[in-house]
Specification:
Among the domains are: about 280 residues, FAD/NAD(P)-binding domain; about 120 residues, no CATH class. Helices cover about 30% and strands about 20% of the residues. It contains 15 helices and 23 strands. Strands 7, 8, 17, 18, 19, 20, 21 and 22 form an eight-stranded mixed β-sheet that branches. The longest helix has 23 residues. The radius of gyration is 24 Å and the shape is globular.
Length: about 600
């Protein structure tokens, strides 16, 4: 009796797309018999742009890449995670026993507006609690009823809006309806993709919107949450770019397709809630994880039709041959914010050297390694983000005009994040404060959120424990060579910029934004800050991938890389969304797995 040989699949990277591919390729016992999956990950943790860590020297505080929340229309992402939670086996002390423990609905969204006097007033939008849960079967939107559904939503939104906002919403809504009928929907329209060569705001004006309304808060918020500013010039309308089809589709999904709530907060860091459970389940299924493997180059075979080898740097070796990456904080398996050096050979030397294993530093004791087609892998899933591809995929770019157009034509931006722990709550006495998330605020931090619910998952001592947490995030501008500052070169250098910008933002904006943190004179009380964490996402693979006009068509399909054994996974590929978000990354990973296995697992429709 012969045993069928397994197909060896190497997955490079550990973000949402890569993990979705691994999850789909091992979803059933039959698939696990067919495929042997190995994940190669730089550094010590999974997550990609969604990674988080626990600082074990600072009371297990959460340290994120940015302000991560999931939207209520993330059908495939939520379905994957619901399946993961149903399969995993948590310990009794783990507070995340089931999927419903992991997320909390966030109904309020705040759109700050300039008040005309140099300050801001807050437009609080409270979304209704809609039926269903994210990841439920069946589309939330019907294309055939899209216009009636949108008109019903528009009437409701305009009725609940104030006197300032209702005319703006009606003007923008009328332009959207006209554009849908004439450009997008049958019989006259040719689909969302047909308008992707036009900028979203120009398309709205083309269909009758007043130009000034296309930079009103609801539209501006679209650009800020997607970091859609060329060169990272946050809040600059002259640099704001989104392809009209992608932007319009996303607007409609945000308005009409939410299950339960528009946003869902994670009850822990994204690493704790998403990537630790995925790691546990995938490891139980037999997926191998090779941490501390930094990809240097993909090499083509002599006929230039497939990947022949992968050059990597093994940054470190585990003492016992296997690295156990998770730690426990308040009963929850979590990723630490630093490698667990005690598990590594020569760990003391590596720790003392100060190398950053997630920013491309090469330790003195590292080793070169070559993974070869036919020996180490038969199929390869490239889950490393677009910014790193000009280097590691140089041979692919030189060989393929499609690759060249993609890597040269799709821009990316650096992002910045700040987390602040406060001794007092945001609202103060009788303020009516309700936890909220804000976008389209003032630069340099145009988005922020009240993340105080995470205090329960951190390990602060009872005495003098913080009472509130704020997360801030935005683009990090790439400074021109003629500017006083140069472009960011390293996370540490860039965090100095962030610290200055945080102080400026707090001084100018926070007193009116958070009334409970004011001094008697009405200024922001800096003495209330008890802890802080700043992060600059400037590594090429950490940069956010934009979707300006003309670029969606440059994206490659996950199953059509142009090279026989190479498949693609990440929010930089073509998907039914073709934009940068968790849902698009998961769609991409599922499509890559489908192309490898031929398994008929169908994407859940957002429409």
């Amino acid at each position: 009796m012969t045993t069928e040989k397994q197909t060896r699949v190497a997955i490079l990277g550990g973000g949402c797309g890569a993990m979705a591919a691994a999850f789909a390729l091992t979803a059933t016992p039959e698939l696990r018999r067919r495929y042997a999956v190995t994940v190669y990950q730089r550094g010590f943790r999974l997550g990609g742009k969604g990674a988080s860590g626990r600082n074990l020297e600072r009371h297990g505080r959460i340290e994120e890449h940015g302000m991560h929340m999931w939207m209520g229309w993330y059908q495939n992402a939520f379905r994957l995670l619901r399946d993961c939670y149903a399969e995993r086996r948590p310990t009794p002390q783990n507070p995340l026993q089931q999927f419903s423990d992991a997320f909390t609905p966030q109904r309020r969204v705040t759109l700050p507006e300039p008040d005309g006097n140099g300050g801001w007033r807050h437009w609080n939008v409270d979304f209704p609690l809609l039926p269903g849960a994210p990841g439920d079967e069946g589309p939330a939107l019907s294309v055939s009823r899209l216009v009636p559904q949108f008109l019903a939503w528009l009437r409701s939104a305009a009725t609940s809006a104030g006197l300032r906002q209702a005319p703006v919403l009606l003007d923008l809504g009328a332009a959207i309806v006209r554009g849908l009928v004439l450009d997008v929907l049958p019989p006259l329209g040719r689909g969302f993709e047909s308008i992707d060569d036009v900028e979203l705001r120009d398309w709205l004006v083309r269909h009758g919107a007043r130009r000034e309304n296309t930079w009103a808060q609801p539209i501006r918020a679209m650009y800020t949450i997607a970091f859609s500013f060329l060169g990272g010039a946050a809040c600059d309308p002259e640099r704001a770019r989104i392809a009209a089809g992608v932007g319009l589709r996303t607007c409609l999904l945000m308005a009409l397709a939410n299950r339960g709530a528009p946003l869902w907060r994670m009850n822990g860091g994204m690493g704790d809630v998403v990537f630790a459970p995925l790691h546990e389940v995938l490891a139980q299924r037999g997926v191998r994880f090779e941490f501390f493997h930094q990809v240097e180059a993909l090499r083509l075979a002599s006929d230039r039709r497939a990947i022949d080898s992968i050059e990597v740097i093994r940054q470190a070796r585990a003492k016992n041959g296997s690295y156990a990456p998770l730690v426990e904080v308040r009963g929850m398996p979590c990723w630490p914010s630093r490698p667990l050096f005690a598990q590594l050979a020569h760990g003391e030397v590596l720790e003392a050297s100060g190398v950053d294993l997630e920013f491309g530093d090469v330790p003195a004791l590292s080793e070169k390694r070559v993974l070869r087609s036919g020996e180490d892998f038969d199929a390869l899933v490239l889950g490393i983000s677009l910014g790193a591809l000009p280097k590691i995929g140089a041979e692919l770019v030189a060989e393929s005009s499609r690759w060249q157009r993609m890597v040269e034509g799709i821009p990316t931006v650096a992002t910045q994040a700040a987390q602040l722990w406060f001794a007092k709550s945001f609202g103060g006495r009788a303020s009516g404060w309700e936890p909220t998330v804000a976008s389209a605020h003032a630069p340099p931090f145009d988005s922020w959120g009240d993340m105080s619910h995470l205090l329960d998952s951190e390990n602060w001592p009872r005495k003098d424990a913080p009472k509130s947490i704020a997360y801030l995030c935005a683009c990090l501008e790439d400074m021109s060579s003629g500017a006083a500052e140069t472009s960011p070169l390293s996370p540490s250098a860039s965090t100095e910029r962030i610290e200055r910008q945080v102080r400026t933002w707090l001084d100018q904006q926070a007193a009116t934004t958070w009334p409970g943190l004011r001094t008697p004179e009405g200024k922001f009380d800096f003495d209330q800050i008890t802890d802080h964490y700043f992060r600059a996402n400037v590594d090429p693979s950490d940069r956010y991938v934009l979707t300006p006009p003309g670029t969606p068509s440059l994206r490659l399909h996950p199953g059509d890389s142009g090279f026989e054994n190479l498949f693609l996974a990440g929010d930089w590929t073509w998907t039914p969304l073709s934009c940068s978000c968790v849902e698009a990354a998961v769609q991409s990973g599922l499509l890559a797995a489908q192309a490898i296995s031929g398994a008929p697992r169908k994407l859940l429709s957002n429409f």
